[in-house]
Design brief:
about 25% helix; 3 domains
């Protein structure tokens, strides 16, 4: 976990600056911090500008993050009255927004390679908008439904399920019977549906068995219209976060226990009973990463992953990394950065010692842009968080402070050091 004490101290200075309550010593410390780097100066201007504070204020006011506010009050020794008092005092709201900006990491980037170079950009970047909830559902009969165009309510019927789209952009299967086939079922060979998100898209789906899946951009999930009696199996391309529902075998064929759930993706199979985990299996990444948040999973890989030429069992907080290629290599990271792995699901980019290539691949998928590098690839490592809801220009402004330049040509971005 990152040590936020430095951020809280900086936040307190900025809060007091906005209130006009800085002591002489605190003003000297704040001035010294601002003068340390171009990044700090730009950050200070951002955090004390009304435009960005108003934007963050609206986001914070509507989020209901009372626990986050309580933590900020405790760490910064702010002793203010009720939320009602905040609403009536504009400087309190601005101070709150400044603190939230710093603590949330929206602008708190710490670059390993500091740069005092002034902003140098070949061309001012256009404001590419972030991704939204959009996907295409391909049914077993090959018909397609554009989910971002479809209205809320029932959109299709299949076997014993009614497929609906909720008002908040979620696909739900409501099974009128058991979500898995029984011995007496005449539907022994169910069809398969595929939900596919484009670049710049994301989507949530509740499968016929009640399992929940969050799909990241440029990803697809193939699943049966009705799961088999003794196994639930889906195929993933790209990235998804899973919350698997437990379903009992109920003595079928003399067996008891839970029906296993298996996810096949990029040369591996993840086998679970009921758990929360994330799989990143994009074809342009060097490794397939399976990160476990809750429960237990088995990762199997090899020429026939189901047989498990290589296998390991993950515990919560661990990550399996599969290096694909002629000689697959499977290893486990015992203390994985779980927050970084699922940041996309929670609406954030999060980096920890992350190189520019990895960052630009994420940008490419989420903002639907093409990326290429020109000349030597910058070796800067980045650490921090920023919302996935911001225009791309804000990300560029942050990256530029480390000496990275961008050339924009339509939806093509050229990165130069």
């Amino acid at each position: 976990m990152e040590d936020f004490r430095e951020y809280f101290r900086q936040s307190e200075w900025i809060v007091k600056h906005l209130k006009g309550e800085l002591s002489d010593q605190e003003k000297e410390e704040l001035d010294r911090w601002v003068a340390q780097s171009e990044h700090n100066r730009a950050l200070f201007e951002k955090l004390t500008g009304e435009e960005i504070l108003d934007l963050e204020l609206k986001r914070f006011a509507s989020s209901g993050k009372s626990e986050a506010w309580d933590r900020i009050v405790a760490e910064t020794n702010i002793r203010s009255a009720s939320q009602t008092a905040y609403r009536g005092r504009r400087w309190i709201w601005y101070a709150s927004a400044a603190v939230i900006l710093l603590v949330s990491g929206l602008f708190t980037y710490r670059f390993f390679q500091k740069s005092t170079v002034e902003n140098r950009i070949v061309q001012q970047p256009a404001d590419f908008v972030p991704g939204t909830s959009k996907a295409v559902l391909t049914l077993a009969d090959a018909s397609q439904i554009n989910l971002d165009d479809a209205g809320s309510g029932e959109i299709a019927r299949q076997a014993d399920a009614i497929i609906t789209k909720t008002a908040d952009g979620q696909l739900v299967y409501n099974a009128s019977k058991s979500p898995v086939s029984s011995v007496e079922s005449t539907d022994s060979n169910p069809g398969f549906n595929t939900i596919r998100t484009p670049r710049g898209g994301k989507y949530r789906v509740i499968l016929p068995d009640g399992s929940k899946v969050w799909l990241n951009a440029a990803s697809s999930l193939k699943y049966p219209t009705r799961f088999a009696e003794n196994e639930r199996k889906v195929e993933l391309m790209g990235e998804a976060y899973f919350e698997i529902a437990k379903i009992s075998l109920r003595g079928r064929n003399g067996k008891n226990g839970t029906i296993p759930f298996r996810v096949r993706s990029a040369g591996q199979v993840v086998e679970v009973l009921g758990t929360h985990f994330n799989i990143n299996s994009y074809s342009d990444e060097k490794t397939v990463k399976t990160t476990l948040l809750e429960g237990s999973v088995r990762v199997l890989t090899g020429k026939q992953p189901e047989t498990g030429s290589l296998s390991l069992i993950l515990k919560p907080g661990e990550q399996a990394q599969l290096a694909t290629g002629n000689k697959p290599k499977l290893q486990v990271i015992s203390r994985a950065n779980v927050e970084e792995a699922v940041a996309w699901k929670n609406g954030q980019f999060q980096f920890k010692d992350t190189d520019i290539q990895t960052i630009m691949r994420q940008i490419s998928r989420w903002y639907d842009v093409e990326v290429e590098f020109q000349g030597k690839v910058p070796e800067t490592k980045y650490r921090g968080r920023i919302s996935r809801d911001v225009p791309l220009s804000q990300l560029f402004q942050i990256l530029q402070t480390s000496g990275v330049n961008f050339k924009i040509d339509g939806r093509k971005i050229t990165v130069k050091s």
